[in-house]
Design a protein that fits this description.
The chain has 11 helices and 10 strands. By secondary structure, the protein is α/β, with parallel strands linked by helices. Strand 2 and strand 3 form a beta hairpin. The longest helix has 18 residues. The site of ligand PBG has 11 residues, from helix 6.
Length: 311
Amino acid sequence: MRDLVAQTRLSVDDLVAPLFVREGIDEPLPIASLPGVVQHTRASLRREVLDLADLGIKSVILFGVPSKKDEIGSGAFDANGIVQVALRDLRDDLGDRMVLMADLCVDEYTSHGHCGILDGRGSVDNDRTLEVYAKAAVAQATAGAHVCAPSGMMDGQVGVIRAALDGAGHTNTAILAYSAKYASGLYGPFRDAVDVQIIGGGDRKGYQQDWRNSREALVEVAADIEQGADMVMVKPALAYLDVISAVRSVVDVPVAAYHVSGEYAMIKAAAANGWIDHDAVAIEQLTAIKRAGADIILTYLARWFAESARR
Ligand code: PBG
């Protein structure tokens, strides 16, 4: 009876699996702060994505870990950068069977760890960064991405990326904008996963949102939709259910939420200590994100959910 009248139903169709692929390794490498998640080799990534497709997962989002970083993050737009190479592999293997998303940012590729190019004073230069994002979008789409997902929170990024994609003939490549991305403490394990340290112990408060603010998120979302975003995202998820709900009530495009690395790590750590029941908490949290209004959930729990849905 309760199942019959349940008001929220989570399905594998809602989930996007974030995956890491690292250049120049022969074996997948575990990530200590993200139990069960690895840095993939090209080959292990292909196997994982085929497995996920067989489990019914419809989409993955790729993050690259380059073997060399530089000032401008050129690995993000190099045709032979690790994500571009991986996209070609996966598109060959799966065609349109899996929606391939590519995170579009430079922090994984810059020597200083910021999401943009630095000016002479160590601050991020918004407009010079946009030029790099435009090149990265075209490189990703050319390599086979169905969706570019700009996560750097530069002003004007969606419009510039849309124009670059259209200009290169990639009119069908969609944009999932990380629109309301907060300067959260919950990204710590992710930065281990992509080997990113922000230079001088810096932070991203200059471009990501202040978590004391919610109305500001609606301004960011509206700007992204105006510039051509096909889908918008709120990130992280659980501490921002109010923001997800507010965004859902004012937009008609699909709303995504990212259950981020720190949220995943907290479940794993508490469960490993025997302090909470992993499966009960995982399903409660993912369902709450959907209940708040998310249509799409990016989560490291995607594989676990798909496997438990089968049982
Ligand atoms: C930036 C990016 C970050 C995440 C996704 N894209 C990190 C950051 O802004 O520092 C975090 C995802 C997570 O914590 O799971 N390219």
